[in-house]
Design a protein that fits this description.
Layout lengths: L1 H4 L7 E4 L55 E4 L2 H14 L12 E7 L8 H14 L7 E3 L1 E8 L16 E7 L13 H24 L5 E7 L7 H11 L10 E7 L9 E5 L8 H17 L6 E3 L12 H5 L6 E5 L30 H6 L3 H20 L14 H13 L4 H6 L2 H4 L19 H4 L5 H14 L1 E3 L3 H5 L13 E5 L12 E5 L1 E7 L1 H4 L12 E3 L5 E7 L2 H27 L1 H5 L11
Parallel strand pairs: 1-2, 6-7, 6-8, 8-11, 9-10
Antiparallel strand pairs: 3-17, 4-16, 5-7, 5-15, 9-11, 12-14, 13-14
Length: 611
């Protein structure tokens, strides 16, 4: 690609996406992800900044950050690929070393982008049009969507700022991924492993926290846009600082983040902590206690838990955005001690195969949905560890730990839905009826979901498909079924018995019965959405160094066409004949025009006179 970028002869590139002959590693991200918006800088651990100690993504080639002056298309449809390949082989392929004969096969790529230069220029021009134009044309949009959060004890969503008598333990993971191509981000190891682990941990925790509540509240958060300089987490921290969220930073006791936990090699997990904040004695004491609790929670599980033996910075994580504002005790749990084990970090090859999600041949889709793969069993163990650790960290009684065990079947269903096929019977039962009945326009299209954040509210409706999946899965895993009708479920504030400040209400399809019909019902749960858009766009600081400034260009259409082109000689001959015909037609036209009176006037009649 870099050779083509530096060539003046390349006008466009079409990449055939193939799973055969896959490279041992491929990561189009940088070697130091999100290095400019994390906590480490010249003012905070300068020796640890810019991956000076640990290069987290050694396979990164930075391709996603290159500026290509020509379009690059990914071809996924096998039929289209075959048509293009056949056209090339029939017309362009050399035979016995000789140059191919005309006509040759050509391809034209259309991908006109409205945005120019960078975010600062693009947003400034968009703002000018919005102010002075009657019909403004938007050139680009900030990447945006929603975070998903819930808690073991409901929090009043209408009350903002410091929550009195609340101490929370935050458990977090990220919702998004990216790759070189737009909306081609399966993010299996990079993102799905964390999502599935935390969802399964929440399901395992919920019954016990209701029967034997810990002294602290456990706040679960799924951050959107983290692959693009921590969009979701920076927004939540920003809102906490401004007292525009249900809790503030003073309410946060500690934090546990789930990173890449696919367990590619062995059964070892690593607890990463921040060496700078641990110079504070109270923070260091709490971090050491968190590590001890996690080791104790691993007893009886087929996992080993340890911490890096050398002092190194935190891996890329949402926790860094919290540390930029407050020294909070916390850990990041991963399957790598130093550099990522994931060889396809932030690429289109970080898929089900990379996460080792495979099925025996001959299984139907419904059988695959509940089949407990090795990956599902491993992540169930990790989820059990996370759930037990969080319960003890929140002040729960250790005698209840044996009652906290993640369900491998739930993990299997989650993995199947997130990396194999989102349009499955379980996902359909959890979503609203209007979503499942939209057909091809539904978020339940074929294949796994894509984890690129995109422009959620503008393109995907209320929220990105992955955000909605997690929102409704959380509601069904932690909520309670009510006897409300559909109208009551959609307008609970009209009922004195319901509290919309503490709960959200979801009208879901329900599981299909024997006759393939389902009975919708209403679920009450303390699951909420909060905006995931960079504070830079609220502050109008489009060149901010503190917050993400990623935008996506607007465009009219993205398409391509193939056709045959003639030789240069034939083209010149055709042009010459055309010019000759034009000159001849002009000459004939001039001749006819100059002789028009002679050619087109009728003979004069002899006049007659009558006396």
């Amino acid at each position: 690609m870099m050779r083509m970028k530096n060539s003046s002869r390349v006008a466009g590139v079409a990449v055939i996406v193939s799973k055969t002959g896959l490279a041992d590693n491929f990561s189009p991200h940088t070697t130091c992800p999100n290095q400019n918006t994390g906590v480490y800088s010249e003012n905070y651990g300068p020796d640890l900044a810019n991956c000076n100690v640990t290069v987290w993504n050694p396979f990164g080639n930075g391709l996603s950050y290159e500026d290509f002056a020509f379009p690059v298309f990914a071809l996924k449809d096998e039929n289209q690929t075959q048509v293009i390949r056949k056209c090339y082989e029939d017309h362009n392929q050399r035979v016995n070393g000789s140059a191919p004969k005309y006509p040759l096969c050509a391809m034209q790529l259309f991908s006109h982008m409205h945005a120019v230069t960078d975010t600062v220029t693009c947003m400034r021009r968009t703002d000018l049009q919005n102010r002075f134009s009657i019909n403004p044309e938007v050139l680009c949009d900030p990447l945006s969507d929603f975070n998903v959060w819930t808690s073991t004890r409901p929090l009043n969503n209408s009350a903002k700022g410091h929550a009195a008598d609340e101490s929370v333990v935050i458990a977090a993971t990220r919702l998004d991924g990216r790759s070189f191509f737009w909306e081609q981000a399966p993010a299996a190891e990079g993102t799905v492993s964390g999502i599935v682990t935390l969802l399964a941990a929440i399901q395992a925790l919920y019954p016990v926290t209701q029967e034997a509540p810990p002294t602290r509240n456990i706040f679960f958060s799924f951050f959107q846009g983290e692959a693009f300089d921590y969009i979701g987490s920076s927004k939540m921290v920003y809102d906490m600082k401004r007292n525009d969220f249900v809790i503030d930073l003073d309410n946060v006791h500690s934090m546990l983040e789930i990173g890449q936990v696919g367990l590619h090699s062995g059964r070892s997990l690593w607890m990463h902590s921040d060496p700078i904040s641990r110079q504070n004695k109270s923070v260091d004491t709490e971090v050491l206690e968190m590590m001890d609790r996690m080791r104790s929670a691993a007893a009886g599980l087929k996992l080993t838990v340890d911490h890096p033996s050398v002092s190194q910075p935190l891996p890329p994580s949402s926790f860094q955005r919290f540390l930029r504002e407050r020294q909070i005790p916390g850990l990041v749990l991963t399957d790598h001690n130093t550099s990522f084990i994931n060889r396809y970090y932030e690429s289109m090859y970080d898929d089900a195969e990379n996460l080792n999600v495979t099925y025996p041949p001959g299984l139907t889709p419904d059988e695959q949905l509940v089949y407990e793969t090795d990956a599902a069993k491993s992540l169930a163990e990790v989820a059990t560890l996370v759930a037990r650790s969080l319960y003890v960290q929140a002040g729960g009684n250790e005698s209840n730990l044996n009652n906290i065990t993640a369900d491998p079947k739930t993990v299997a269903q989650l993995l199947y839905g997130f990396v194999i096929q989102k349009n499955n019977s379980w996902f359909r039962s959890l979503l609203p009826p209007e979503v499942t009945k939209k057909g091809v326009n539904s978020i339940l299209s074929s294949g796994p979901p894509q984890f690129y954040i995109g422009l959620g509210p503008r393109v995907h409706g209320p929220a990105h498909s992955v955000t909605r999946f997690v929102q409704y899965i959380l509601a069904n895993l932690t909520g309670s079924v009510t006897n409300l009708t559909e109208s009551q479920c959609q307008n609970p504030s009209e009922l004195s018995t319901e509290n919309k400040d503490l709960f959200s209400y979801f009208w879901v399809s329900g599981p299909a019965s024997v006759n393939s019909t389902s009975e919708p019902f209403c679920v009450r749960a303390s699951v909420r959405l909060s905006k995931a858009v960079s504070p830079a766009f609220e502050l109008l600081e489009y060149g901010s160094r503190n917050y993400s400034t990623w935008t996506e260009s607007r465009w009219k259409s993205i398409r391509a066409r193939i056709f045959l082109v003639a030789s240069r000689e034939l083209e010149m001959l055709t042009l010459g004949v055309g010019v000759a015909v034009l000159l001849l037609s002009l000459l004939v036209t001039y001749f006819i025009s100059s002789k028009a009176e002679l050619l087109f006037s009728s003979a004069r009649e002899t006049p007659t006179t009558t006396y």
